[in-house]
Amino acid sequence: MILDSTAAAKAIVKDDIEHFFDSIRPIDMVIQMQNPSVSAHANRDSILTAYKKFVQEDVADFKKDEIEFIAKTLAEAFELCNKAALKYFPEEIKLVKTHGKHYGDDTYYTRENIIVIPKAALKKKNTDEFLKVMLHEISHIITRLNPSVKTSLYALIGFNPIQQPLVMNDSLKQRVLINPDGSDLKWITELTTADGVLKAQKTPIIVSMKSIETTATPKEPNFVGSQIAFDDAKNQVIFKEKAGFKTDKIEVVNAASVIFDRKEMTFKVIDAEKIFTNMKIVKTKTTDKTKVCVDYKLNDDTIYITEFVEK
Description:
single chain, alpha+beta, 3-stranded antiparallel beta sheet, 17 strands, globular
């Protein structure tokens, strides 16, 4: 279903499934709005009101040629899904077009059964690329609308529901940035390096490089990559800010936000939903005949998770 700007403005700020608007932090909203009149130190309710208005004003009407392009691509996506798992294909998918101001010109995302499409992508009309993205976004909707399927699929890539809430100090809580395609932090995995040096339970967290105290209207929506590391001995996340800022040690329960980059020997942030929708799995035997080494390679990047799982 193609939503016009009026219907889209209502739909884009509604989330009764994952409750995105209950989870999003002030710093996240301020980074997106880039509005000097909205301070990250203001009351959260007032920031949220301004943010919702900002998001609603970002929607746009689809053009006739865009609708034709989308319809053709979604028909192909349906046929591909029909060959795999038709029963999980959403009964209805709603489409919203945006100017790309809140997440960027090239950023698609989903909310409930809605796919949000930036207008810049529609200008390109790259059929193959658009089809890949639609399948990617549909997979987000499928896992969102089918919790038991989501749990089973996540288990295949080594993620299971966390049994206890994460313990975060105020500094970390204020910095957390929410992935609109998977806003909860309840998924946990066990990772090791290829040589077994690190072994601990982890859950991914995306955070801002700047604290709320140092953020007014940041010019760059910076995300933490390799600047997060896990101190396994002390069960702490060590969060290193940019040069000149302090270093926080953030206590967590069974948690770290890491992906091991074997090339750079660092750890990077990513989440289970990202891994699930982008992974290519390569299995190789180890010297231990009871285990299989599984590498999750994300597209053509040099980011891997390496873990050893029981056969």
